[in-house]
Structure formats: C-alpha cells, structure tokens
Amino acid sequence: MASYFEGARRELSLEDGSRVAVVGGGPAGAFFAYFLQRLAESADLELEIDIYEPRLFTHRGPAGCNHCGGIVSESLVQLLASEGVNLPTEVVERGIEAYMLHMDVGRVRIGTPTDEKRIAGVFRGNGPRGSERALRVGFDRYLLDLAASSGANVIRSLVTRVAWREDRPELEHGGGARTRYDLVALAAGVNSQLLQKGCDAAPGYTFPGTLTTFICEFHLGREAIQASLGDAMHIFLLDLPRLEFSSLIPKGDYVTLCVLGHDVDEALVDAFLAAPEVKRCFPGGKVPELVCHCFPRLNVRPSAQPFADRMVWIGDCGVARLYKDGIGSAYRMAKAAARTAAFHGIAAEDFEAHYGPACRSINWDNALARLVFMATTAIQRLRPLRRGVLRMTATEQAREEVFKHMSSVLWDVFTGSAPYKDVLVRSLHPGFVASLAWNLVAANTVAFGTHVKGTGHD
Ligand SMILES: Cc1cc2nc3c(=O)[nH]c(=O)nc-3n(C[C@H](O)[C@H](O)[C@H](O)COP(=O)(O)OP(=O)(O)OC[C@H]3O[C@@H](n4cnc5c(N)ncnc54)[C@H](O)[C@@H]3O)c2cc1C
Fold it and tell me: What angle do CA 286, 291, 294 make, to 5 degrees?
C-alpha cells in the first residue's frame, strides 16, 4: 500500500518524549489515550498525550452530549471490569434486566440469558435539556477523566485542520494555534465537520458512509417509568416504510427514544409515535412532549483507509460495528491502535499489519450483519413470520427447561453482545430452523390456536 510519507521511509516509532495528539475525547479517543498511556508505561516509555475535546460533558442537552442510546453492552461491561474499570453507580442510570419486543401481533419479554443485570443504560452527557441539575457523571466525562487520571492532558479546544508540515502531522486548533505531533489519533466521530471532506494530511482517508437517525428524551418520572416500562429496554419491529428499528430506553426520570432507519425525518418519527404499540408504553397511552432531541449520524460504512504514517482513525470516524455496540467497537479499535503504536510502530505499514486485522474483523462481521438485518427486515414486513417469531420466543420464555434458540438470537441482535457471526451460526442451527418452522405453522394455523400466553394478545 502506498504510504503518504513516501520518499523518507524509515522506521517510525514512539520514543521517550514523543508527542501524541488525540482529536476527540469521546469513547474512542478516551480509550485510546488511556490504553496508550498504560501500554507505554509497561514498555518504560514516557509519552506526552494531548486529548483535544471542546466539550466538558457538563452542559445539559445536545451541546454536552455525544448523541447515542447509551446502552453499554454486556460484553463491554465485562471487558472493562476485566481491565479493572468498573462503571460506578453514578454513571449507570439503570441496569437493563430484559428486552420487551413489540410487534403488531403482540409483545414478548426476553430476560437476560443468565438472569444477571449486566447491560448498563447511561447518559453520554449531563442529561437532557432542561433536566434538573444533578450530581451526574455522564459516561463520556467518566472515560475522559479516566484518561486524564492515567496521565493524558485534556485540552478544551476544537481542532480545525489536520495538515502535514515537514515530516509530521500538525494540528490547527483554538483560534489558529498550530502544534506538530509524532502521532495523531483521530477520534472525532461522524457528527463533526472536521473530516467530512477527507483529510489534507492523508489523501487515502475517506469519511465513512452514514445514516441520519433520531434520538429524543421524554420526562416521565421514575415511578411512572417503573410502572410503564420497568427495567426493560423496549424494542419495536413495526412495518413502517424506512424504519429499521427503534427502542425506548428507561434512564432515571427519563426515557430515551432512538429511531434507526433510512433518512429518518420528522414524518417517520411522527408515524412511529402514532403506532398503538408505541403509545401503550406510555402512561395512559399518551406520548408526552419531548424535552430534547437531535438527528445524529450513524456510521454504516467504514472508512476505506483508517491509517497513514503517523496517523490512525479510531471509533466512528474509522471503522465501527454496524448498528449495535458502537461504544464496544470504539473500545476494541482504540485498544488495537494503542497496542500497535506502543509495541509495533506508527508507520502506515505497522497499522496495516497490526491494526488492520481488527478493522477487517469488524468489517467482515458487518458484512454478515447485513444478512442478520435482512432477516429482521423480513420479520418487520411479513406478518406470518412475525406471528411465528412471537410464538417461538414466548414459548421459550415460558419454559425453563427448553433451549432458547430464538430468544438468544434476538437478545444478541438487540444488545450487540455477541459478534454477528455467532448470531448467524446460531440461527442456522437445525434446532432453530426446526423450531421456527413448527412455530410458523402453529402460529398461522387456527387448529393450533394462534394466540400464545404472555404476548399481550392472549
Ligand atoms: C441513534 C444512535 C444510537 C446509538 N446507540 C448506541 C448505544 O446504545 N450503544 C452503543 O454502544 N452505541 C450506540 N451508538 C453508537 C455510538 O454513539 C458511537 O459508536 C460512539 O459514540 C463512537 O464513539 P467515538 O468516540 O468514535 O465518537 P463520538 O462519540 O462521536 O465522539 C467524538 C468526539 O470528538 C469530539 N470532536 C469532534 N470534532 C472535534 C474536533 N474538530 N476537535 C476536537 N474534538 C472534536 C466530539 O466533541 C466528541 O466528543 C448510537 C449511535 C446513534 C446515532
């Protein structure tokens, strides 16, 4: 692969005193700085790491937030715990115990496979616009503080340009100041202007493909939330044009709504909120006024080349997991990039050899994800299939002793807790296929009784 810094090829690596810039202090940037600092210490290397992040994550509303559903997958909660990073209780707004799947043919509750509360519901910022001032530590602020406590400097400044000067990348920031670095990690996400037209310092980099999504918050109060939504995340598979899926996530006094689809706009959100399956989740069947909303972009196609000499792109502005567990993939990519920089080098070839496999692994899994989401789209569009899926899931949830084929597949699709490859393999298991075939027949044949207990239609 052609390197941007042709001509002066020599071994590029971090040394004592090397300066590293991280552009963006969201999950990808904070994890990268944290791991690079720790790995450098283990290699007896003294680095100076600057994280550029204009947000304090203390403002309430979109200005202080990185726009997301705020579900931290069980696999990430476990990985972090194994690193000694245990999310404190003031960061976790609610532990999610179960998923409730809503369809027009009924609803079914899917409990955690091991009856443990391991999924965390967090605010990325300091809560919705107009919320009471709370002693809250949002998830992003917690991670940024973690990176700072490991030794990184946090610079409250917007980076306006990444250029190349002499033999190193140079950042323009804070009203025209310029600083050169030995390594620049770009973690600015997909909602920033900075990289949308590519990057002057690395012509090979392309901005990822994105979709517009919708997020809003409703204020209901803790008691009303407990009564209407409980400790479950609510997922909707509704047959509405352009809608992929949507979820209601209870958090403290608020409920977060996320709508994913193709070109999500106000008309699609209105159609979704008018659906009876959605309305009945709110007290009295009435959807309250939303207190805060945004239309953030979501990475749905990776950057073609998320590395160059002395530069690496991590998290959403590079390669990210499709639809689910974006924070988990930011963690994995940040760690792979940090390990490469600390132990292997910072030339494009080093990133290609040691960071490239992590990128390819996510890209390959995302290709399989498209097959998984073709199946969820088929469920949305075909009513007989919805009936069969509902029956199979409800029957599994009602019986302790049976193997929960459909429940485990749906759980992992909705939580993002397992690679899409595992989900696909499990859905091709003969037991899954036979059970689905039987439930399709039973749910669509009057002789067998089409209604199942516990689905809201019994
Ligand atoms: C609707 C929706 C729902 C989602 N729900 C979930 C979920 O429930 N769970 C989950 O795991 N993932 C979810 N995601 C995905 C998740 O939000 C992202 O994958 C994750 O935030 C990526 O982290 P990041 O650090 O790469 O980018 P970001 O979180 O976008 O952080 C980028 C940071 O860079 C900073 N920045 C930007 N430009 C500059 C600049 N020029 N100079 C300095 N700093 C800059 C920003 O202020 C920001 O703090 C969701 C996404 C969407 C759109």
Answer: 110
